[in-house]
Design goal:
Oligomer: single chain
Largest sheet: 2 strands, antiparallel
Distance between the termini: 67 Å
Bound molecules: arginine
Radius of gyration: 31 Å
Helix content: 55-70%
Number of helices: 19
Strand order of the largest sheet: 1-2
Number of strands: 6
Strand content: under 5%
Shape: elongated
């Protein structure tokens, strides 16, 4: 600042109104993570108990000190859970808050807990444990969503509806088959969750600041006590790795993208124009001005949550992409992204499960729509190949002319007379009408994974055995 007078300005003016006490307050505000990382209290305490137990087992601390530490940590756990614990921003984060309270409760023995560890491996551990538990919750939630779809698919294995490409009527399918498409999608999401759990199943504790430690610790013991398959193998990587968080966010983004596509279909299907489904009152709202309206708000919000979740992934990728090894404080920005995405994803899956379970499927509307838009044109072309021996390309051409004729007469293909059809190709017989109905069309698609009701039932059985 060129103006010498600036030195006489009050700290208030210099630092802005919010930071009444100057740079210290700004530092505290930017540095503290307790506002959000207090969510990790249970994992922090569990990790500390495992660490202290290992230290005593290895003769690094006395077993009396270990007992005091474990008892103190359990006291802190109940203080936090009963809302009696006072979190302090001056103590920065959950790790320092708990350690400071431990010192008040048990005195000097508390100072021995931090032997052979650092906040760098501590936070890596706490966060990993939290993400692992969240992945386990997500796995359960996806299983419930898949179960909801399997029930609806079974119920509607024979319900015909139009299948779409470009959102234009393509070929008739069954609603059961359409539901099973989502089972496949959410099934893949669930296997991504399982893979992520397996991938991250290594314990960071004992990597210390970055280089390991000279104390004779047993990292296999702590890994086992904390439910990990084993310890991580490189201490530098351990404290600088947030792949487990990125994998969680990647899987969350893909799942949210699937949920959003489903939400979009629900929004379209519940319009009066489509009218394929009616959402339950529990998952829709009215309009404050238009009494006739029933809005699919829950589906719209699921669609919108995808923006937040995808945003979290991009945010953390961006935080991580420029960091040299090993730990940098930038990494503290990992938690809010993951917490927010996790909350949004849990809610979105739960809302979708509720909507799928509760919605009324309007089979009459689906059936009427299934037959419109010349949806059985491919069946006519296939019939010409099979019964009249035409090459498919010629059959396609003949069918195109039949569609044009039906369009001209403003009727469906099945409503054309035999004479009309024979005027286009002489080899057409009245047997053709057997394939022009939507029921015949779906029943004929018996290829593996096809829409024929029996084929769909086979796929339902396959999934039932795995859900
Ligand atoms: N609150 C920190 C975080 O979330 C804990 C690790 C602090 N480590 C350090 N070297 N300052 O990343």
């Amino acid at each position: 600042m060129a103006d010498g007078n600036s030195e006489t300005k009050s700290s208030n003016q210099m630092w802005g109104g919010r930071f009444a006490s100057g740079p210290d307050a700004i530092m505290e505000e930017i540095n503290a993570s307790i506002g959000f990382d207090k969510k990790l209290y249970a994992q922090d305490i569990r990790g500390s108990i495992a660490h202290a137990t290992m230290l005593a087992h290895q003769g690094i601390i006395s077993s009396e000190d270990k007992d005091k530490i474990v008892h103190g940590l359990n006291t802190i756990l109940s203080e936090i859970e009963s809302g009696q614990f006072e979190f302090s921003r001056r103590l920065e984060d959950i790790h320092m808050n708990i350690e400071a309270r431990l010192a008040t409760l048990i005195g000097p023995a508390a100072g021995r807990l931090h032997t052979a560890r650092s906040r760098n491996d501590q936070v890596a551990l706490d966060f990993r444990l939290w993400v692992k538990e969240e992945l386990q919750r997500t796995e359960k939630a996806l299983t419930a969503l898949i179960a909801a779809f399997l029930d609806r698919a079974e119920e509607h294995a024979d319900t015909v509806m139009p299948g779409f490409t470009h959102l234009q009527t393509a070929q008739p399918v069954t609603f059961g088959h359409h539901c099973m498409a989502y089972v496949e999608m959410f099934g893949r999401d669930r296997s991504r969750v399982r893979h992520a759990i397996e991938h991250m199943d290594e314990s960071p504790i004992g990597a210390a600041a970055l280089a390991g430690t000279g104390f004779p610790i047993d990292r296999h013991m702590t890994a086992k006590a904390l439910g990990f398959a084993g310890p991580t193998r490189n201490s530098i990587d351990t404290v600088s790795d947030r792949d487990f968080a990125l994998e969680f966010l990647s899987m969350a983004s893909i799942t949210a993208t699937h949920l959003s596509r489903l939400a979009e279909e629900i929004v379209i299907w519940s319009t009066p124009q489509f009218g394929f489904i009616r959402l339950s009152d529990a998952f829709s709202t009215g309009s404050s001005i238009m009494p006739q309206k029933k809005n699919p708000d829950a589906a719209e919000l699921v669609r919108a949550k995808t923006g937040r979740i995808n945003g979290s992934l991009i945010a953390l990728l961006t935080v991580m992409k420029g960091l040299p090894l090993a730990y940098s404080k930038d990494m503290q920005e990992d938690k809010e992204q993951v917490f927010d995405a996790a909350e949004s994803l849990e809610l979105a899956i739960a809302a979708m499960t509720g909507m799928v379970r509760d919605m009324t499927v309007r089979t009459d509307r689906m059936k009427a729509a299934a037959g419109s838009g010349y949806s059985t044109a491919t069946d006519l072309a296939d019939w010409l190949v099979r019964e009249a021996g035409l090459p498919f390309r010629d059959a396609h051409h003949v069918t195109g002319r039949a569609v044009a004729l039906a369009e001209q007469k403003t009727c469906d293909l099945a409503d054309l007379s035999l004479a009309d059809l024979q005027s286009i190709h002489a080899d057409i017989t009245d047997k053709v009408f057997d394939v022009l109905t939507v029921e015949a069309s779906v029943a004929s698609r018996t290829s593996f994974g096809g829409t024929a009701p029996n084929e769909v039932r086979k796929q339902i059985a396959w999934w039932r055995a795995r859900n």
